[in-house]
Each structure stands twice: as structure tokens, then as C-alpha cells.
């Protein structure tokens, strides 16, 4: 089947939806999303969205905190854009129907998370993302010019490569003409031609065995752009959230929001000893890279499989009222957080790098934008400040929409694009091959490319990945395509990019910590 749309949006999280809502007044929008529309990382966001709302907070303080967390690798001009536009974007989310918690005074109830010097995180209980996703989906479903195609999996973006023109990574003017999308009803691959395309496919946490990310986070957009020879950067900076619930058989890992530490919860060993002051004078509220590394170190020293978060000293009623989701979840596995410590471990959580974009979300491929977690704007540098990613998605989707609206009238469809060539695909994949390769890949990444790395571990990871890559490419070429085999292929691409970029970084910086380039894990100066 062939379709034509002015704006093709791949992804229905905050990045895709907020862009779609803005461009829909200027042309037809098609949102393609691989699961049901709500199933996004956005929906699982707990802590909230960071924005400067009231004094004593200032843009300058939020800018400083962002750059400090990013270990001085952030692009200052991008940080300034994101932070100074934060207040307007939050107001827009509110106008679209998002409810953020307020105090009795009528002012927003701002929370504090690791690395923030002020209270500035707007939230809705401990399920902020669900509330934002609800409001945005509601608006999108009401808009007459937005069509949402659920359970449609995008395989690749279309470029002149599909016209038989050779494209390599040094090519100028690679152009995006739309995407090939697996139709769940016909099981065939549709051609969706577009004038402008936005990739908003989110993160890639499933490249690791333990992650807070939902199943959809398989780095598809990043892999697509990489295969199309677009520019990808900063992939070595994978953020591990320090506090996911230790419940080994559960996937994805349930997040215990950092806002709980902002509320006063304290990290302790299972023997009830505080340890964070040893590593950073900010204690349990040090930035995430430092806390995750400290926990990793404590676990190596003690040989235990988790540490704990202690809430027992906190006001019980306030605790349950502010964090009802966490209270209920822990109770469901037999832990009353008002009486017992919560067992926690770090889990892969957020990808700071991705598709390289400029201040308007423009990728290196013409007519292709990328926003949200799949994009690398330079805001996060070597480590993201908590709750800056929902903000980044809103700000750069807005800016991408401005650029898109300005140019849509001057762009024509490329009608010569051929349909997907499925000839030569004869095999129905053997699921066991795909699931085993996926498990192997996740173990390689968790064991050798996790919180602490070394040159030797990275080399070992690359050698093993190459075997999986070769096996999977053979299988892919012959198989009738399915979501699972495509996701595995994308995760292999993403793993390759993480390892290669980690190998190139000959220093320990932010989230990339290598034993070969020592840097004190203690930060108490
Ligand atoms: P997502 O919301 O993940 O949406 C991606 C979309 O792309 C989905 O609709 C998916 O189906 C679609 N998609 C992907 N691949 C394809 C494909 N091949 N074809 C078609 N569709 C595709 N950040 C904060 O700022 N504050 C927080 O409090 C916070 N808490 C978090 C808690 C958890 C548990 C997690 C996992 C993340 C949290 N984050 C938080 C990070 C934040 O939620 C994400 O970075 C952000 O929501 C990403 O939004 P997005 O729109 O880029 O991607
Ligand atoms: C959390 O609530 O701890 C997650 C916040 C984030 O990832 O920004």
C-alpha cells in the first residue's frame, strides 16, 4: 500500500505528539507507532519535568546544574535554549490539559531531584508521564488532521539509496522521502511518502538485560538513521538510574523515582549503613552518574546483590500521598515502605546520545527531524540532569515544528520511490534464534559495557557482538520480516555504536567511566 502525508511522525511519546499537535494546522499528519499509542517511555515517567517557575530559582541556576551534571560536555547555547524556553513549554502542556500537583497556596508543588540546586520539578503524584501522555493523546485524537496508525512498525526511512543512488556517510544532501512501515493487518510493508519526517522513537534501554525502559525502547530510530548514513553521536553516555526496585524476575525494572530521595529517602547498605557521603557531599542527592557508580562500588565491596532506600523516618501519610504508585507497587511484593527498606539496584535508564541534531531538531539528513530521547541535541553532555528529558522533548519538538511549518510549502513528494522489495525472503524466522541472540546481546552489554568499563571489556564486547551481527544479518536477509527480527537488528546496531564510541573516548567522563582512565569516584572536594 502507498500513502502520502505532509508530516510523518514516527513515535507517539511526548516528542512525537507535541510536534504533531503543532504542525497539524499546516498539513496532514500521520503518526506511526509500533505498539498502542500510549505505550511509550513517556507514560512511565515518574519524577516529573524540570522547569524554572518561581524565585529563588533562576534560569542561570538551572543552566549551571545542567552543565555540572553533564560534566562540562553540554553545548552551552543548547542548554540556554532549553532552560529559558522551559516555562513556556510547561505552560503549553498545562493548556493541553496536563494536571501538575499544586500546593494549598495554588502554587505548583515543585520537587527536587539529584543534581538540582533548587525545587523545580513539576509532577503529578509519582506518575507524571502517564498524565502528560493522557493529555497529549487526548488532544491528538481530537485533531481532524492527525491520524494515528497503531501497531505499525517502521523498518527504515527512505532516502535516495532506495532510488539506486549510492549514499555514504560523507554524502552531502542525503534526503528523506518517508518511511517503509510494516502493516500489522496485511503483514506487508507499506510505503509512506512524506514531505517532512520526524523520528521520535525514544531510547534503547533494551540493549541491556536490566532496564527501566518499556519493551518499545529498542533504538529503532537511531539504527534507521545510522543505516541511512546520517550522523549519530555521544552514544557512549548511557545513564543508569541508581534506584530501580530489586525484583529480579520483573521486566522492565520498576523505577523508584529520584524524587523520593528529594523527599528525604536515604541510600543505605543492607546493614543499614549510609554510604553516599563517602562519595559526594550531596549524599543521596548527588547526580546520577555518581550515585550509580557509588552503588556499583558498594555492591562490589560487599558482594551483595542490592542496596536499600530507607523511607522509614519520613512522614508516613505524606509519603503515601506523594508516592502512591511506589507504595502500592512495593506492597504488592510484600514490602511496606513505611516499615521496611526498599531493595534497589541501578538499571539502564536513558540514552544521552543519539541522532545528531541542531537547535531546531534538524538531523544531518535533509527533511528529517529527530526529537526526544532518540536525538542528541547537546543538552545533556556526558550525563543528563534528572527530569530534563521530558523538557528537552517539549522544547525541541516545538522548535522542529517552527522550522517545519516554515518550509512545508516548498517541499514536493518524491513519487519515483519504489515499493519495498521483499523478493528472496523465504524463511519464517525461528524465534529461538532471535530470542537467544537478544539475550546474548543484552548480557554482553551488561557485563562489559555497563557502569564501569575498560578497554579490554569493550574489545571483548565488540568481538562477541560481531558474531551475533553476522548471524543476524544472514537471517534478516532471508526472513519474511517481523518486528522481533527488526528490533534485534536495531539493537545490534545500537550496541555497536555504544561500544565504538566508548572505545573512542579515551577518558572517564560523566556516564562513561573506564578503569583505564581513572577519575576519582569520590567527589567531596
Ligand atoms: P517515547 O515516549 O519512548 O516514545 C517513543 C515512541 O516511538 C513510542 O510510541 C514507540 O512505540 C515509538 N516507536 C519506537 N520505535 C518505533 C518504530 N520502529 N516504528 C514505529 N514506532 C516506533 N524523564 C524525565 O524528564 N522525567 C522523569 O520523571 C522521567 N522518568 C522516567 C521514568 C522511566 C521509568 C523511564 C523509562 C524514563 C523516564 N524519563 C523521565 C525519561 C523520559 O520518559 C523519556 O526520555 C521520554 O519520555 C522520551 O520521550 P520520547 O517521546 O522521545 O519517546
Ligand atoms: C525519576 O523519577 O527518578 C526519573 C527522572 C528522570 O529520569 O528524569
Number of domains: 3
The percentage helix is 25-40%
For this structure, the CATH topology of the largest domain is FAD/NAD(P)-binding domain
Give the beta-strand count. Answer: 18
Tell me, what is the CATH class of the largest domain?
Answer: Alpha Beta
Q: Which ligands accompany this protein? A: flavin-adenine dinucleotide, succinic acid
Work out the oligomeric state of the chains in this entry: single chain
Main sheet characteristics: 7 strands, mixed
Proportion of strand residues:
15-25%
In a few lines, what is going on in this structure?
The chain is an alpha/beta fold and 525 residues long. Helix content is 35%, strand content 16%. Helix 3 (59-69) crosses helix 4 (76-84).
Secondary structure blueprint with pairings:
Blueprint: E1 2-10, H1 14-23, E2 29-32, H2 41-44, E3 49-50, H3 59-69, H4 76-84, H5 86-95, E4 121-122, H6 128-142, E5 146-149, E6 153-158, E7 178-182, E8 189-199, H7 220-227, E9 232-233, E10 238-245, H8 259-262, E11 266-268, H9 288-302, E12 307-310, H10 316-322, H11 324-332, E13 342-351, E14 354-356, E15 368-370, E16 375-376, H12 388-407, H13 431-448, E17 452-453, H14 455-478, H15 483-504, E18 513-514
Parallel strand pairs: 1-2, 1-8, 2-5, 8-15, 14-16, 17-18
Antiparallel strand pairs: 3-4, 6-7, 7-8, 9-14, 10-13, 11-12, 12-13
Helix pairs in contact: 1-6, 1-12, 3-4, 7-15, 13-14, 13-15, 14-15
Bound molecules: flavin-adenine dinucleotide (FAD) and succinic acid (SIN).
Amino acid at each position: 500500500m502507498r500513502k502520502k502525508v505532509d508530516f510523518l511522525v514516527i513515535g507517539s511519546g511526548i516528542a512525537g505528539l507535541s510536534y504533531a499537535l503543532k504542525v497539524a494546522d499546516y498539513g496532514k499528519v500521520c503518526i506511526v507507532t509500533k505498539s498502542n499509542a500510549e505505550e511509550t517511555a513517556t507514560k512511565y515517567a515518574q519524577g516529573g519535568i524540570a522547569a524554572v517557575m518561581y524565585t529563588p530559582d533562576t534560569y542561570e541556576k538551572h543552566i549551571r546544574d545542567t552543565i555540572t551534571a553533564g560534566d562540562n560536555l553540554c553545548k552551552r547555547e543548547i542548554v540556554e535554549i532549553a532552560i529559558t524556553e522551559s516555562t513556556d513549554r510547561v505552560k503549553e502542556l498545562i493548556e493541553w490539559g496536563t494536571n501538575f500537583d499544586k500546593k494549598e497556596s495554588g502554587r505548583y508543588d515543585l520537587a527536587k531531584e539529584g543534581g538540582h540546586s533548587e525545587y523545580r520539578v513539576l509532577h503529578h503524584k509519582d506518575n507524571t508521564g502517564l498524565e502528560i501522555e493522557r493529555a497529549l493523546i487526548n488532544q491528538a485524537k481530537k485533531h481532524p488532521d492527525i491520524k494515528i496508525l497503531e501497531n505499525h512498525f517502521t523498518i527504515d526511512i527512505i532516502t535516495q539509496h532506495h532510488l539506486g543512488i549510492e549514499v555514504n556517510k560523507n554524502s552531502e544532501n542525503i534526503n528523506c522521502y518517508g518511511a517503509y512501515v510494516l502493516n500489522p493487518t496485511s503483514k506487508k510493508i507499506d510505503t509512506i511518502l512524506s514531505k517532512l519526517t520526524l523520528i521520535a522513537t525514544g531510547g534503547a534501554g533494551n540493549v541491556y538485560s536490566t532496564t527501566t525502559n518499556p519493551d518499545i525502547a529498542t533504538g529503532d530510530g537511531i539504527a534507521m538513521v545510522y543505516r541511512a548514513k546520517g550522523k549519530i553521536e555521544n552514544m557512549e553516555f548511557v545513564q543508569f538510574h541508581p534506584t530501580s526496585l530489586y525484583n529480579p524476575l520483573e521486566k522492565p525494572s520498576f523505577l523508584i523515582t529520584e524524587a523520593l530521595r528529594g523527599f528525604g529517602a536515604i541510600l543505605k547498605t543492607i546493614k543499614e549503613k549510609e554510604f553516599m557521603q563517602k562519595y559526594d557531599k550531596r549524599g543521596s542527592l548527588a547526580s546520577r552518574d555518581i550515585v550509580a557508580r557509588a552503588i556499583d562500588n558498594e555492591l562490589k565491596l560487599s558482594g551483595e546483590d542490592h542496596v536499600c532506600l530507607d523511607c522509614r523516618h519520613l512522614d508516613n501519610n505524606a509519603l503515601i500521598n506523594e508516592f502512591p504508585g511506589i507504595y502500592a507497587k512495593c506492597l504488592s511484593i510484600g514490602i511496606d515502605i513505611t516499615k521496611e527498606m526498599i531493595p534497589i539496584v541501578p538499571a539502564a535508564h536513558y540514552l544521552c546520545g543519539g541522532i545528531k541534531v541542531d537547535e531546531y531538531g534538524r538531523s544531518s539528513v535533509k527533511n528529517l527531524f529527530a526529537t526526544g530521547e532518540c536525538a542528541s541535541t547537546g543538552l545533556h553532555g556526558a550525563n543528563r540532569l534528572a527530569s530534563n528529558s521530558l523538557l528537552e522533548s517539549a522544547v525541541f519538538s516545538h522548535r522542529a515544528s517552527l522550522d517545519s511549518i516554515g518550509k512545508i510549502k516548498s517541499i514536493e513528494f518524491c513519487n519515483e520511490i519504489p515499493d519495498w522489495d521483499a523478493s528472496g525472503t523465504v524463511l519464517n524466522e525461528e524465534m529461538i534464534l532471535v530470542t537467544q541472540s537478544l539475550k546474548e546481546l543484552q548480557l554482553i552489554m551488561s557485563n562489559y559495557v555497563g557502569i564501569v568499563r575498560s578497554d579490554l571489556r569493550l574489545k571483548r564486547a565488540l568481538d562477541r557482538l560481531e558474531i551475533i551481527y553476522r548471524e543476524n544479518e544472514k537471517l534478516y536477509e532471508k526472513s519474511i520480516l517481523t518486528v522481533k527480527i527488526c528490533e534485534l537488528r536495531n539493537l545490534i546496531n545500537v550496541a555497536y555504536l555504544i561500544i565504538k564510541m566508548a572505545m573512542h573516548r579515551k577518558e572517564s567522563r560523566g556516564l562513561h567511566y573506564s578503569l583505564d582512565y581513572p577519575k576519582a569516584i569520590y567527589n567531596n572536594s
